[in-house]
TrEMBL record:
PANTHER family recorded: TBC DOMAIN-CONTAINING PROTEIN KINASE-LIKE PROTEIN, TBC1 DOMAIN FAMILY MEMBER GTPASE-ACTIVATING PROTEIN
Domain Rhodanese: 248-339
SUPFAM superfamilies named in the record: Rhodanese/Cell cycle control phosphatase, Ypt/Rab-GAP domain of gyp1p
GO MF terms, alphabetically ordered: GTPase activator activity
Claim: Methyltransferase is one of the keywords in the record: no
Protein name from the UniProt record: LOW QUALITY PROTEIN: TBC domain-containing protein kinase-like protein
Amino acid sequence: MWIIPRCHQYNDLLSSKDGHTKLKRVLKAWVTSHPQFVYWQGLDSLCLPLSFLNFNDEATAYACFSTFIPKYLHNFFLRDNSAVVREYLSKFSHLIAFHDAELANHMSEINFIPELFAIPWFLTMFSHVLPLHKIFHLWDKLLLGDASFPLFIGVSILKQLRETLLSSGFNECILLFSDLPEVDIEQSVTDSIDIYCVTPRSITFRMHESESTLLEGALLQRHNQALSEFCSSLSSTDLLDLINTRFKKPKVLVIDIRDNEEYVAESIIGSINIPLARIPDLESTDLGSMESSPEMNILFNNKGSIIVIVGGEDSMRQAKFARFIVRLGFPKVTYVHEHVNSFECYGVLGPGIPS
């Protein structure tokens, strides 16, 4: 296995013959001791900061590397890592859509997908695209967060580049990320923490995050189906937390898309009813074609709140309605898979108001 370092060669220590030798030994030790994994391009970039910080202690560099990878990059270095990477990038897309509907819509319209720019970010935890001094600052905070925190760092970087991205087409975006522009890393760290703190945990749930989060059967099928949707699904636990009025929680609006008869019979207390049949074209953003109603007025008055779409057994209907709301420019939109009736045992259901 030949390792040819490609980044941070401006650093005298890392570009030296001794630096190359030490890096190669740590990487060889890791690959040899983890036969289930293979060497992927970018592994050297990931190892370089740890090799630099422990330049005279290769055993510690190896130990840090061996601890870092399973926490933040579990199974990323399998020979076939396609399912792992696909899930990770899908959750990144979901997070963008949740926090910045306008940017998510624009990127979708020009077909500028995370696969085109974000793989080197996450595969190397940004060490391939940022200079060492910024990596050390970023990783100081990263190491305090959970396995989902890198996704929030990615969103914070896009936030800094937002205006440029919104005014750019596909080719301009490709050029922009061919050499990542200057990033204010302190601002990125601050924004990452802020975004993380207001995001329900299930928005970034990944079954490949660890061995303990693996799914099977119907749950696996539902999870994989949700990955292809534009918006992330929300767990029933997170929804119950959001609507629990005993605690100070982010403002939430629950929209029930079932027919009014079903809604009136039993629905989540405080939810509003906008039947799916009332929307003539879910692909349209022409507000003039939509039937005016008190419920639609409530929706538009709650822009900026967390909006949760609920309905019946077919969660595809909830997902489509959520995409429609995002297409209208609403951030913080999500949906639940479970039928409204499944919340009966939690004491949050009651009769709805007839329209």
